[in-house]
Every structure is written in structure tokens, then in C-alpha cells.
Amino acid sequence: MFNLEGKVALITGATGGIGGAIATTLHEHGAHVVLTGTRELVLQTHTEMLGDRRASYVVANLSSPEEADTLIARAEEAAGAPVDILINNAGLTRDNLAIRMKDEEWDQVINLDLSSPFRLCRAALKGMLRKRKGRIVNIASIVGATGNPGQANYSAAKAGLIGMSKSLAQEVGSRGVTVNVIAPGFIDTPMTSVLTDAQKEKLLAKIPLGTLGEPKDIAAAALYLCSDEARWVTGAVLHVNGGMAML
User: Fold this and answer.
1) CA-based R_g, the chain, Å
2) Is 6 left (phi over 0), alpha (psi -120 to 50) or beta?
3) Distance (Å, rounded) from C-alpha 166 to C-alpha 160?
4) Sign of torsion, CA 16 238 58 80?
5) pLDDT per position as a tens digit, 43-93
6) Using an 8 Å Cβ cutoff, are 94 and 105 in contact?
7) Which distant-in-sequence residues (6+ apart) come within 8 Å of 8 by Cβ?
8) Rounded to whole angstroms, how far apart are CA atoms 227 and 219?
């Protein structure tokens, strides 16, 4: 079950907790993983930790449209084979109340969290459609469905990612390509480690399962959606949030 042998998987944002966990999990199940991000030392260390020829990395700043447009080709060159699986995980936040939000704070988030995944999907689909098979998994967020004060830009980008994925799924399903979304809740990563104990208690009170999620929870969901076992799942949004929002 969940055998990814012979598949090439590109994971963006692989220097973060979730991206790194997805890369490790897909590699453990046989995929050749291509990690990408902006921090070369972290990428190199993680690639070496995986420890065989089924791991490569490409340094890329996806805030640049040009780098986003060329990443699929660079990943295929690094792996020596076409990309079968695309995980759009890279993202950033620039939180502010809407009344105070600067144009650059809006533009930075929309560019990296929505426009960049579109560019990567567009590039990856060319090869996937020719082969009549492929998997795209876009990592959104619980706030793309619920909204969140101070995150109008981030919530809009993640909601847009969901809508984009559903549209793509309808466009390419007849050619054997699936496009799905994972919407994580609050995950125990360096981003949430800055919360105070009081903030964490308030947050945990809203989660029926009573704990923050872990990167491996998102990686497990990604593994399923990338596998042959999910062959009849497309246009879906898999909410992994401990019950915080039952959508």
C-alpha cells in the first residue's frame, strides 16, 4: 500500500517542518524526492540525511515568477526524470489588520502563496497531461475556509488555492491527473512555537482532539493523495485540523 517507487516528487517549501516531513514520508515510500526552498544548507542537510540517490535539491526563490516558471524543468534535470508528483507547500504570512495592511504585504502573500503554485501547476501539467497521469497536492490552510482576523491576505490566498485546485481538477481529470488540497489546522512547527502558554491554552480549547497537529499528520495525508489508492479522489479538500473546523 502507498507504493511510490519510480515516481519523482517535487516538494516546495521543503526547508520547513511540513515540507520536510512530506519529503521524508514520500521518500520512505519509494519516491525520488526533489526538495526546493531558499536555504541551501538546510536543503543539502536534509537531502544527505535521506541518504541515497533518490533525493535531490534545487535552490529556488518562488517569489520570483521566472524561478517559479523554470522550477519544474530544473527539478526534472536534477532527478533525471519527469515530475510525477507536485506538492505546492511553500508559503509565507504577512499578518496585519486589513485597515493597516500595506499593498506590499498583500502582494507578497498573494504572489508566493497563490500565483507561484499556479505557475508550478501550469508547468507541471504539460508533462503530466502527455503521460496521462500525475498528482498535484496543494497545501492550503484552515483559514482559507474559516478566515482569520489579521490574515486577510493569507486567507484570500489559501481560499484562492482551493478554488484554483477545484478548477484544475475539472480541467485535467479526464487525462488521469488528480488535483487535491490539504488544509492543515494549527501544526506544531517553529511558527506556532512563538505562542505564549496562554495563547496555546486558548487555541487548544478550540480543538476537540486537544493537541496541536504534527508535520507527520500532514505528510500522511499527502502520501495518501499521491498514491494509487487515491486514484478516484480529485478536487477534494482534506481538512486535517483535529476537529477545530468540521467542514
Assistant:
1) 17
2) left
3) 10
4) positive
5) 999 999 998 899 999 999 999 999 999 999 999 999 999 999 999 999 999
6) yes
7) 31, 32, 33, 34, 75, 76, 79, 81, 82, 83, 84, 85
8) 12
Question: Is residue 111 a contact partner of residue 117, using CB atoms and an 8 Å limit?
Answer: no
- Dist CA 14 CA 33 (whole Å): 10
What gap in Å lies between CA 211 and CA 199, rounded to an integer?
Answer: 13
Cell numbers at residue 12, please?
Answer: 516546495
Spatial separation of the C-alpha atoms in residues 18 and 214, rounded to whole Å: 8
- Set 62, 87, 134, 154: catalytic member: 154
Q: For the chain, what is the largest distance between any 2 Cα atoms, rounded to a whole number of angstroms?
A: 53
154 as an active site residue: the answer is yes
- Number of residues assigned to the chain: 247
pLDDT tens for each residue of 182-234: 999 999 987 677 778 888 888 999 999 999 999 999 999 999 999 999 999 99
